[in-house]
Amino acid sequence: MPVADLEIDATGLACPLPILRAKKALAQLASGQVLKVATTDRNAIRDFQAFARQTGNTLLHQQESDGQGVHYLRRR
Could you tell me the pTM of the whole model? Predict the structure, then answer.
């Protein structure tokens, strides 16, 4: 697992709120730093893949089990 510089909890939130929270958190980080986002939205895996492609941030790792998701993004 990557080491996160900042972690946010977006559990219980539906799309697009986890992405919006991630976008706001990434703005606080310097280039190269890593954000960890915890989610429960069942579409979050695809949403974060699309978000990374569209923004140029690197999606380092995703994991989902028992309805809980964890996403690691490196700021561009």
Answer: 0.96
